[in-house]
Please model this.
Amino acid sequence: VSSEEVAEEDCKGGIEFFKDEVSWDARDSFRWATRLNPRIARYWSYYSLSMTKLPGMIIEAENAILEAIKLEPKNASHYINLGTIYLKSGKMKRAHSQFEKALQLDPSNERARRGLKKTKQ
Model:
């Protein structure tokens, strides 16, 4: 069994934990996936998302989604996730900027449009 296969299994397990709202276990599964195969942006994105559900993990969530963006700079979903993290931490200008970037990449993205509306004051 390769480390890539184990990483994929960890990711699948993390998704199941996340669906069942077992947030710490989800975070741990995604963290293992990123350690075993750090070149997969999806693992970093899920890892980030799992940490947004945990207290005191916003900075770590931001760092993880930034890693996903490095790996896939043209993926609008990553910018939306970063914008959502900034919204949760009250950084409206930063959030607004990320939703705008997402819309530049995917002009019809509804999640980005909704996020942008939340940041307009």
